[in-house]
From TrEMBL:
Membrane topology: Multi-pass membrane protein
Localization annotation: Cell membrane
Record carries keyword Membrane: yes
Keyword list, A-Z: Cell membrane, Membrane, Transmembrane, Transmembrane helix
Name under which the protein is recorded: Oligosaccharide flippase family protein
UniProt-listed Pfam families: Polysacc_synt (PF01943)
Chain ranges passing through the membrane: 23-44, 56-74, 95-122, 134-152, 164-185, 191-215, 311-330, 350-369, 381-403, 409-429
Length: 435
């Protein structure tokens, strides 16, 4: 780690992690996060059944989607601002707390509106009868979740990747602990969505204290201007955040709407393995994004190209090897973790998901390049193209192939999304990636 020297008091507390250290820490967090996520779904699936697992994951998908509305793109504004700012105390205070106040107000409004929209949600998912109750319990958690997303953008931008990794891992650990507590109390299945609210609230207390220690709040000028700058950036990039999260959950949502909670629950088991693999891509993306912003600012285009070629080859090899091993071990995993015969159907979509991953992994590592270049509107365009393809493919392929079609659609849309990033980076930024 290298300390950033500055006369300011708060800046002296900031020690940015190197890329290698950040990747190591975040890969460790990924392993922990994957294990906790599997245990979470395993516990729900085994002790409550595929219907409750499906209801929970549909509620979780809605939660993740609406959280992007609640955070309003401010997490990407925070990432960009913290990545490119100097470390003067007053500037950091404005960046951190100006956006935080804006995020709080927007998140509260979104949470309240989503509760009022429960009758509409029930009509969208008529075959998931417990969803209204689950959402009523989960909706308040949008507020702490949005604030956590924003604060993690600050932590990521300051390249404090060890702290970033710990917080990411703690999220699912807290969810798992909350689930254990609710199960011991004999909570009905539809109440399990409360673990989202409980875990995010606890996480906010810890993350907020950490950021406060790094950048203590004090009254400074132009705070309102900083908040307005965040909102202006956020409103342009918010569609990208919304469609990115919806893109990662649209398969579960469409399965729940077109089929039922049982099929959504079965598919979730395949999605677990795919999402665990995809989190490795997210780890790389989060670690390269601060340096990428500085390379773009300083016009180091050849460095970006050369690094992307090396990274792309490494991601292709690792994703291919991981896919082969993961699919080979999946039947064994099912026999031990999800012995009910229904869950064997999860093998079909997993095959298509893992076939697509090697071709999407490298390009998706650069999925924030447009935002980090200060082009949040084009970031939204790129993500919207991916989402449109995903929705169209899911409706088409689920209707034709059922649960396997969801895996085909998600895999194909990931490949198309990666190609979109490469093309737009070349056309809009003049940046070559991979070739």
């Amino acid at each position: 780690m290298s300390e950033i020297s500055s006369p300011a008091g708060c800046a002296s507390k900031i020690e940015r992690n190197s890329l290698a250290a950040g990747v190591i820490w975040n890969l460790g967090a990924l392993a922990f996060l994957a294990a906790a996520g599997i245990l979470l779904n395993l516990a729900i699936g085994r002790f409550y059944g595929p219907e409750v697992l499906g209801t929970f994951n549909i509620a979780f998908a809605i939660f993740i989607f609406l959280s992007q509305v609640a955070v309003f793109g401010l997490q990407l504004s925070a990432l960009h601002a913290a990545s490119t700012a100097d470390t003067r105390e007053e500037e950091l205070v404005r960046i951190v707390y100006g956006g935080l106040v804006a995020c709080l107000g927007i998140a509260i409004a979104v949470s309240l509106v989503s509760i009022l929209a429960i009758p509409f949600i029930a009509k969208l998912f008529p075959r998931v009868p417990d969803l209204p109750t689950a959402w009523l319990i989960a909706a308040p958690g949008l507020v702490p979740f949005a604030l956590n997303k924003y604060l993690l953008g600050i932590v990521n931008g300051l390249q404090l990747m060890r702290a970033f990794a710990i917080v990411q891992g703690a999220r699912f650990a807290l969810m798992l602990l909350a689930l254990v507590a609710m199960a011991l109390l004999g909570a009905p299945g539809e109440y399990l969505a409360a673990i989202l609210t409980i875990s995010e609230t606890i996480l906010l207390l810890c993350l907020g204290a950490f950021v406060w220690r790094i950048v203590p709040f004090r009254a400074v000028g132009r705070m309102a201007r900083s908040a307005a700058d965040h909102v202006r950036f956020g409103v342009r990039v918010m569609p990208a955040g919304i469609v990115t999260e919806l893109n990662s959950r649209v398969d579960v949502l469409i399965l729940g709407a077109l089929m039922n909670d049982r099929m959504a629950g079965i598919y979730t088991v395949a999605a677990l393995v795919y999402e665990a693999a995809l989190q490795a891509v997210v780890v790389i993306r989060n670690n390269i994004s601060p340096g990428l912003a500085r390379d773009l600012r300083d016009d180091h285009l050849q460095h970006i190209l050369g690094f992307s070629r090396r990274l792309g080859l490494a991601m292709l090899a690792l994703a291919s090897l991981g896919g082969i091993v993961g699919y080979a071990l999946f039947p064994w995993f099912l026999r031990i973790a999800f012995p009910a015969p229904d869950f064997l159907l999860a093998q079909e979509p997993l095959l298509w998901l893992l076939l697509a991953l090697p071709f999407a992994a490298g390009p998706l590592s650069y999925s924030l390049i447009l935002s980090q270049a200060g082009c949040p509107g084009w970031q939204s365009v790129a993500m919207a193209i991916m989402l449109a393809a995903n929705i169209a493919l899911n409706f088409l392929l689920i209707a034709a192939f059922g649960i396997a079609g969801a895996g085909m659609a998600m895999g194909l849309s990931a490949i198309l999304g990666g190609l979109t990033i490469i093309v737009l980076a070349r056309l809009i930024l003049g940046v070559r990636l991979f070739f």
